[in-house]
Each structure stands twice: as C-alpha cells, then as structure tokens.
Write a sequence for this structure.
C-alpha cells in the first residue's frame, strides 16, 4: 500500500506547465518522455505564413499515420492562414483540423495521458493552450469464436481486447437507452480503462453501489487482466470457487444484462466479468436456450452429474478399494483384483499419482504449440496408458477411473480450479478414512458453498430455494415461456420479463 | 467471545473426525477373497474350515479366477479361519462369501456355533446361503466339477437362484434361518446338496430340503416334497405340476406349467380347536399331454383343474403329515397363529409342539388353466 502511494506521488510530480514559447513547452514534454524513442516531435509551418510554427507530439505505434497526415498535418500546412488575420488556436480547432474529436486544454495530466493513449497533441507558437486530436490507431485482432465457449447453434462472435469494440458489440444487441456504460480508470501506472455495464431499471442498485465501492478501494499499480481484477473484488477471496464469472461471448453478456447482472469490461481482456455469478451458471451454456428444452435439460443434468463424478470418482474408488471391499460387487472386485496383481504401489498413491499425471498432460496441452499435439497424445496415451499398465506400474482400473475423472472434468471447464482442489482433497480424505472421509469432505464443501455469496446473493440460491420458480432454470431448462421472472435478488424491482402467452 | 465460539465450533467439527471406528485400512490385494466356506467337525472336536478362494494370480489380466481350497483347523470356527494365515499368507476375507456348506454331522449336533460366528463376525454377510451337505465331510463338495462357473460356491449360488423356475429347492439366507431359530412356532429349513457321479465326473446336485428342529438337523424332504412345501410357504414362482389322469392302466399324465401361484394361510380358532386353512390359487397352462383325452372346451379344462387340485391337495397333505410326524413346524403355522390369533397363542403357545402334531389343515386349491398351449387337441396319429 505504501509503495503504491509513493509511485502515485512520483507520477504527480511529472507535469507540464504550459508556457507561451513553443520551444519551452516541447522541452517539458521531452523531459517527461525522455529515453522513449517512440516519442515523436514533428515541427512544421504553414506554407502561407511561415512564422506560425506548430509542433505535433505523438507516440509512434499508437497512432494511425493516415489520420495524422490527412486530418492534421495536411490541412495545417496547406490551408491559407494568411487570409485570416487573427490566427489563434480556436480558429485552428474550428476551421482547420478535420477530426471528429478535438479538445483544447492546458491540463497537464490530460495532455500526457492523451499522448499515451495514442492521441496526438498539437502545440502552437505563442499559445498557452494545446489541442488533443484523436488519432488512435492500432491493430487488434478480428473477432473469432471463443475457444472456451463453443456452441452448436448460436452466434460465433467473441469479445476482443479493445474495450470500445466490446462495448459496441453489447450495444448492438441491446438497443435501449437504459443500457448504461460507466467508464473508470484503475491502476496507478496502467490507468486501465474499465467499462461497467448494466441496464438501468433492471440491475440492482445496491449491487452496483457495492461494486463501485469495491472498485474504488482497489489501489494497485496495474491491472492487465480481468481475472486479476475479479480476484481483487470478489467475495470469499480464499474460496476455490469463483464468485465472479466471465464470458467471452457478447450474446451471453447481453443475456446476463437482461437478467439484471452487471458486467465489468477490462480494456485489454476479452473476458468480460459477470456479477453476481452463481454456481448454477457454470452448468449453463447459451446453447441450452437454442436447442430443444428436453435435450437441454438432459445435457445440463449431464453436466451436473459429471461435475459430481469428476470430484468424487477417484475418492470413491480409493475408499471402496481400501476400506469397503464388501461394497464392491464380487465380479467387479475380482476383475479389479486381477488388474491389481503385482502393482507395487498402494491404491491411494497409485490414484493420486495418476491424477497428477493427468493434470500434467492437461497443463502441457494448454501451453504447448499445436504442432506438438500428436507427440503429446502419443506420450500420454501410449506411455502413460498402455505401457504403464503392461509394465504393471499402475492398474488398468485406476486408468479408467482417472480417465473418467478427466473426461467429465472437461465438461465443466470453467469449474476447473475448484474441481482440481476438491478432487485431490477428497481423495486424500478417502485414503485416510474411507467413505466416511469422502462424506465428511463433501459435507465440508457443501457447507462452504452454502455460506458463500456473490455480491450479497447466495451462491447456491437457485438450488437451495424452496420456490418452484427458482428451480426452472437450474439443473433443468424448462421451456422459455415458463421463465416469466428474472432471478430473485439479482434484479431489483423489475422482475417480470415476459408477458403471459395470452398477452396480458 | 465470538472468537471463543468459533474455536469451539472448530473443535466440534474436527472431533467427530477422530471419533470414528473405521480405521481399517487394508489394501484389497492383501486379502484372500473367500467365495465359499465348508465347515466340518474333526474327530478331536476341533473345527475344520475349508475355504474356497478366488485366486487371481495365475490368470492375471483375463480376470478369470481359479478356485483354490484352503483348509485349516482350529478350536473354534473363527480360530480356524484365522489359522489359515499359517497356510496362506494374506488373511481370509469373508466379505464376499456367498455359500456356507455345513456338514450333515455338524448340523445334526446343532448349528448354533456356526450361526453365531456367521452373524457375529463383521465381515460375513447375512445374505449368505447356508447349505447342508448330505455326505461325509462338507469339504468334499469343493472337489466337484463345476459346469458353468469356475468357482464351485458360485455354481451352488447360481443353482439356488435358478431353482425358482422349478421350485424344487428352497432358497434360504442366513438371516432368514436366524429368524426361524429365534422365533417360536416355526422351524428352520435349508437346501441340501450332495455329490453325484455323471459320466465319471463328480457334480453337485440340489436334493431337497433339510428339516431342523430348533438348531438340529432331524430329517430331509426330497425334491418333490420340497415343491409342495414351497406351495405352503408361498415361495412358488414357477415350475410344473404333473397330474395323473384316466384309469391306472392308461397311466395318462398331463403337465401343467405354473404361471403364477399365491398362497394364503389363515388360522382359525373354533370350539377350542385351531384349524389352518390354506388357500392356493394357481394360474397354469397346459404344457404336455400324454393321454387320449381331448380337451375341447373350457368345461374339460375346468374338470382337469379340479383333478389337479385334488392331487395337489393330497401331496401337500402328505408333506404336512411328514412334518407333523417329525414334529417340526417348517411351515410356520405357529407363527401364523401367533400373528393373527395372539390371544389364543398366549394361551396355547406353550404346547405348540403337541398341538402341531394333531393340527387340522384344510387345503383349498384353486387352479385355473388359462389355455392349452399352441395346440387345441392332443396329438393324434392318423389311421
């Protein structure tokens, strides 16, 4: 905390006091941007009146050269300024510069940050004011389908890094003036732009207030990822469960806004934060609303089931095999025993080792260049799978259990971090205390889930609710005409989102 | 204050973790999987326990287990089970035992010690099948050649499961037998196996029912008698009913296949006398005809059903007579009286042994022949 304060002070000391002489002003900017070779200073004069000197300041790489050439330098040099006797900065601003956004200011901070953000600053001889002229221009990648949220039926558009483009993607989907964007800057050094996005009248004002309060408390030198911001402002920060969600899809973001949720868009990250975020949302996919509701309900239940399986399967295997052999059906126990003949490790070591091996494979798969994928699959499948079983280092059943665990784990990708933690936790408990330990662990996890909240909304709200209308969009996805109300607590007063089918 | 409560809560939560009794960590591969037990009494009054274990070492990955017999002696049954460690390294694990074969000799002396061990031990299951071995020593059973399963105990269990198609053996589990032992007015029964030689190979054969008085084996019922016993016990799920028809010289026989059978036992008390009424409702199908008689309409079938009912009644009466002679209430009539006429039982229950001998039993069979199979008449040979 102390350190960030001092850096903040350092920053304040570096300021520009606008003077009359062009040379002095330029020198001040030069001092601030010293040792920065991308800082460009371009002097030029009007071709009709050579005593009017101009200086354009910008950062190379941040500007669109075309814009600077066409809308600033070309008109300034070619316009006949001598006809106009009273040439001052206002006439330049109003009559010469051809740009959609020009601002006259003496404010040092505004000028410096404008240069940093890719605008250019125009200085003029014998003038205390400077002009900030929009000239931003940099390459960003085109929108692609987000890898993490693929759909069968639905839009393929995904968010990109620049904030404004993301905002426009949301705005295009919600044509209402009630859609509000609040722009903030966070990070003493990075001054990262944040967009807080909500629909006025649907979003809960208390949650919005709480969010702004938490954001204001963040004092950090830089925020580069939306994820690290989420970690700073979320509830239950020590929990493995995330209480702020994220999405890469503008249509998901818009749907969340319509439910009364609030988005935080961080410039530079295509992952938009969604809050409040509840556990049930990890099991929802925007596909669910596009496909038939029977099928959607089925696949949702499958996701919930696979979450339960991926967390408990290895633990139950270890517990049954080391404590409760009588609970395994005899033929199954016999084939497990046959597979375990000659395995040197205890079951718990074997299982934990393979879970670890699978995590290594997964981690490598993410970080590794695509061209090496075949090598990885050969290593993973052949060496770890077949060879290890044939060499009698691990038993085939453990491989099946861990493969099942891994496969079902991939189904709920976004829950990866709690899943890995709880899975290992439960497996160790199973090795220590059998089924009793597994149950104990599950109760601990459930108790924990019941206590955490996301911005005041209980994390398990829909699952634990006794009201039937809260259960309509959880483990099952009822037809859309059933979903007449917005989720409780999240939306403020405006709860009805759909007229009755008869139109009243 | 809040802090103290919090700490106390943590202690409360962590405490039960340490208070459990299940600390029994054991690797599954350090156990010898027992599938069946044969219990004999040796000459020196010790017990001889033969355990049939499923051995996975040889076949390995194929998952086919080999039957390995481990014999051990001990002063008590559990002592013998543990003494097996002297012979075989990993200890015997009884959690997957399906069949307990008790030798005839031991059963005649009383099965209480066996039952006590089987119910008291925490590994043995109450759904195991106790079986009486009709022969010298129960361990001989494991020398038989199994037909389908690799392991003889599994074969016996499968035979017991399968017999419900013919209802010629009873399927008893330990807890059922224990209930019979513990309650008054009913005697225990167990299925009986023996070895039989077919084509030079010794094979297992189910052969009726062992009848107990208290905990002692006192006699046997053969397969057919067992079937009629099953009718009284309402255990018939299928099977056939053969009916003699026509004159004796004709020796005509008709076979009915039982589709459904329901028995209701109702005791009544009138004029200081207990009578038992047994109503048996059977739905059957004509399945095999060895006679000249033709069945043209429902009337003929009803006539046949009546004959079948009479014959069934006679058979059942014979079985009841046999049980009454040996004074063992294997039908649980006493229990029925106790349940439906508790006042009478309070008064007369003490003398049930005597009462059972002279008990009057009314059997009311009600057979319905649903159809005559795929043929209407019997097969006729042309002139």
């Amino acid at each position: 905390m102390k350190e960030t304060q001092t850096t903040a002070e350092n920053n304040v000391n570096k300021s520009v006091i606008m003077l009359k002489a062009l040379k002095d002003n330029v020198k001040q900017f030069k001092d601030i941007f010293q040792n920065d070779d991308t800082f460009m200073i371009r002097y030029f004069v009007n071709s009709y009146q050579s005593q009017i000197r101009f200086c354009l300041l910008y950062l190379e790489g941040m500007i669109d050269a075309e814009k600077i050439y066409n809308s600033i330098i070309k008109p300034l040099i070619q316009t006949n300024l001598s006809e106009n006797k009273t040439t001052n900065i206002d006439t330049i601003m109003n009559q010469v510069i051809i740009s959609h956004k020009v601002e006259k200011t003496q404010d040092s901070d505004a000028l410096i940050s404008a240069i940093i953000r890719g605008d250019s600053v125009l200085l003029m001889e014998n003038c205390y004011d400077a002009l900030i002229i929009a000239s931003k221009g940099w390459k960003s990648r085109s929108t692609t389908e987000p890898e993490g949220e693929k759909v069968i039926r639905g839009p393929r558009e995904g968010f990109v890094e620049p904030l404004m483009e993301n905002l426009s993607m949301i705005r295009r989907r919600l044509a209402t003036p009630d859609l509000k964007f609040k722009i903030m800057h966070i990070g003493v050094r990075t001054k990262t732009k944040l967009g807080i996005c909500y629909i006025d009248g649907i979003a809960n004002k208390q949650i919005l207030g709480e969010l702004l309060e938490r954001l204001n408390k963040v004092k950090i030198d830089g925020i580069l990822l939306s994820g690290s911001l989420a970690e700073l402002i979320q509830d239950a920060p020590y929990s493995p469960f995330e209480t702020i969600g994220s999405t890469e899809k503008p249509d998901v973001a818009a749907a969340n806004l319509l439910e009364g949720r609030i988005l935080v868009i961080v410039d530079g990250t295509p992952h938009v934060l969604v809050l409040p975020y509840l556990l049930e949302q990890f099991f929802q996919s925007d596909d669910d609303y596009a496909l038939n509701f029977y099928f959607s309900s089925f696949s949702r239940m499958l996701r919930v089931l696979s979450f339960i399986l991926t967390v408990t399967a290895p633990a139950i295997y270890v517990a049954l095999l080391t404590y409760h052999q009588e609970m395994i059906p005899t033929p199954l126990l016999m084939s497990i025993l046959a597979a375990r003949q000659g395995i040197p490790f205890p079951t718990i070591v074997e299982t934990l080792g393979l879970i670890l091996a699978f995590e290594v494979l997964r981690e490598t798969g993410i970080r590794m260049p695509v061209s090496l994928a075949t090598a990885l699959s050969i290593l993973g499948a052949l060496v770890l799978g077949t060879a290890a079983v044939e060499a009698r280092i691990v038993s085939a059943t453990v491989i099946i259990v861990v493969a099942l665990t891994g496969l079902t784990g991939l189904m709920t990708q976004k829950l990866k971090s709690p899943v890995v933690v709880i899975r290992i936790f439960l497996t160790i408990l199973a090795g220590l205390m059998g089924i009793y330990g597994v149950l104990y662990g599950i109760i601990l996890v459930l108790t924990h889930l019941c206590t955490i909240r996301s911005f005041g909304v209980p994390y398990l709200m829909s699952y634990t609710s006794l009201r039937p209308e809260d259960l309509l969009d959880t483990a099952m996805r009822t037809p859309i005409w059933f979903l007449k109300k917005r989720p409780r607590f999240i939306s403020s007063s405006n709860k009805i989102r759909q007229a009755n089918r008869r139109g009243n | 204050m809040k802090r103290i409560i919090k700490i106390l809560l943590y202690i409360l939560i962590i405490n039960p973790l340490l208070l459990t009794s299940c600390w029994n960590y054991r690797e599954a591969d350090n156990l010898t999987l027992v599938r069946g037990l044969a219990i004999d009494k040796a000459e020196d009054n010790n017990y001889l326990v033969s355990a049939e274990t499923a051995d996975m070492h040889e076949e390995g990955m194929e998952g086919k287990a080999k039957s390995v017999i481990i014999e051990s002696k001990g002063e008590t049954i559990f002592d013998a089970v543990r003494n097996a460690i002297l012979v075989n390294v990993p200890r015997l694990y009884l959690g997957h035992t399906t069949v307990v074969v008790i030798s005839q000799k031991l059963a005649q002396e009383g099965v209480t010690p066996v039952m006590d061990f089987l119910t008291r031990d925490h590994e043995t299951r109450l759904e195991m099948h106790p079986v009486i071995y009709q022969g010298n020593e129960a361990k001989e059973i494991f020398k038989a050649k199994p037909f389908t399963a690799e392991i003889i105990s599994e074969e016996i269990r499968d035979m017991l499961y399968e017999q419900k198609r013919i209802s010629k053996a009873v399927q008893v589990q330990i807890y059922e037998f224990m209930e019979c032992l513990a309650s008054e007015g009913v005697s225990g029964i167990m299925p009986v196996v023996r070895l039989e030689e077919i084509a030079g190979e010794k094979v297992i054969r189910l052969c009726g029912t062992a009848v107990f008085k208290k905990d002692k084996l006192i006699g046997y019922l053969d397969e057919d008698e067992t079937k009629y016993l099953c009718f009284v016990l309402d255990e018939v799920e299928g099977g056939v009913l053969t009916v003699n028809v026509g004159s004796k010289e004709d020796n005509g026989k008709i076979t009915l296949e039982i589709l459904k059978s329901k028995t209701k036992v109702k005791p009544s008390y009138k004029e200081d006398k207990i009578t038992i009424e047994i109503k048996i409702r059977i739905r059957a199908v004509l399945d095999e005809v060895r006679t000249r008689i033709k069945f043209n309409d429902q009337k003929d079938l009803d006539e046949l059903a009546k004959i079948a009912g009479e014959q069934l009644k006679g058979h059942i009466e014979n079985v009841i007579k046999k049980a009454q002679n040996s004074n063992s209430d294997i039908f649980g009539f006493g229990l029925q009286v106790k349940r439906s006429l508790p006042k009478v039982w309070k008064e007369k229950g003490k003398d049930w042994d005597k009462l059972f001998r002279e008990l009057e039993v009314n059997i009311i069979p009600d057979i319905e022949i649903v159809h005559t199979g795929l043929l209407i008449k019997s097969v006729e040979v042309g002139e």
Remarks:
- Confidence is low (pLDDT under 50) at residues 1-12 of chain A.
